[in-house]
Amino acid sequence: MINAKRLIELARKQQKTAAIKRRRISFTKSNTNADPVATSSKGHFTVYTTDKKRFVVPLKYLNTNLFRELLKMSEEEFGIPVDGLITLPYDSTFLEYIMPFIPRMCA
User: Fold this and answer.
1) Residues in CB range of 19: below 8 A, 6 or more apart
2) Average pLDDT, the chain
């Protein structure tokens, strides 16, 4: 099992390589037609990746240091979201890789 510090290191490394390949990504107004709060089920919130894939995440994940660090990196990259969309500065492949580790940290 990979510890949280190693996952954070991997996240930062992936963020740096992704930043080299692309410029800052911002969503257009056409992507924000639906209210993200209304489309998430109770006890969950929605985050988006740079390739515009949507992830519905349980609120209990906010208690993990790993997810807090991911949100801090998102704030550094994109700033605080004005339109309500939380965008993580990673592609969906990376997020799909680390999501199974987060429930283990909640227990």
Assistant:
1) 77, 89
2) 76
Residue found under tokens 């990673």: 90
Q: What burial class does residue 81 get, using C-beta atoms within 10 Å of its C-beta: 0-12 exposed, 13-18 middle, 19+ buried?
A: middle
Check: CB of residue 74 under 8 Å from CB of residue 89: yes
**Residues 66-80, mean pLDDT to the nearest whole number:** 84
The label of the residue with tokens 């911002």 reads: 26
Total number of residues shown for the chain? 107
The β-bridge partners of 56 are 46
Query: What pLDDT sits at residue 32?
Result: 47
DSSP assigned state of 74? H
Residue 37 has pLDDT above 50, yes or no: no
Residues 66/105, Cβ–Cβ less than 8 Å: yes
Q: Can you tell me whether residue 30 is helix, strand or coil?
A: helix
**How many Cα atoms within 13 Å fall on the side-chain side of residue 39?**
12
